[in-house]
Design goal:
Blueprint (H helix, E strand, L loop, with lengths): L4 H17 L1 H11 L4 H14 L1 H5 L3 H15 L2 H18 L7 H19 L9 H16 L4 H18 L23 H19 L5
The chain binds adenosine-5'-diphosphate and magnesium ion.
Amino acid sequence: MQMTSAEYVDCLRAAATLLNENKDYITELDAATGDGDHWANMNMGFVRLMEMSEELAALPVSDLFKKIAMTMMSVIGGSAGVLYGSAYLKAAAAAKDAQAIDLPLLRDILRAQLEGIMSRGKAQPGFKTMVDPLHQAVDAMERAMEEGKNEAEVLSAMRDGAEAGMKATADMEAMRGRACYQPDKGVGHLDPGAVTMWYQLQTLADFLLKEGNAV
Ligand code: ADP
Ligand code: MG
């Protein structure tokens, strides 16, 4: 697979659509464990990114990620904006001067994003946050690559890992974010940030699988 900036922007558009369709669901999840603004925060960010889509599509990969970082940091309120800002700054550094994203670079980008969020949020896997789907996605992807799986299998493993990590947050006690302050620490509820992270990882995998880029 080879993914250009324009294709990455197409992929963001698919994530924006999925997010937009799930307004009530995400808002209810954040109302149960936090303050109810997570959908509005994320949606504002994605709406702005889509307004900039032409400009974004024309940028080299690293500049694209820098621009996404700045936009998310300034437009998305709350913790998520800062965390996605850190994730995309790390992604920009990982992309260096690449013209397009191949599978090993995609793995490096996702690993860098994970490290960015974990260090900025002082969060570990198992803390019931957006880290959980991303962590399991990256781990599953790396394992599949080490086992010599083909690209489609690697992308499917990434997608399945993200879903498993998202689902696992339901049983976790929150160690970061507003859910920490709930008497039940959010146990029994999915973490909203994990669900929106899963949307993005899912659309990324589906886009690459569907495009027939993966072999
Ligand atoms: P806020 O909590 O400031 O209202 P949002 O509602 O937009 O911000 O985002 C909440 C989500 O951010 C949580 O569901 C969780 O996934 C994620 N999150 C919050 N704090 C952290 C942290 N320290 N590390 C990683 N993720 C976090
Ligand atoms: Mg919130």
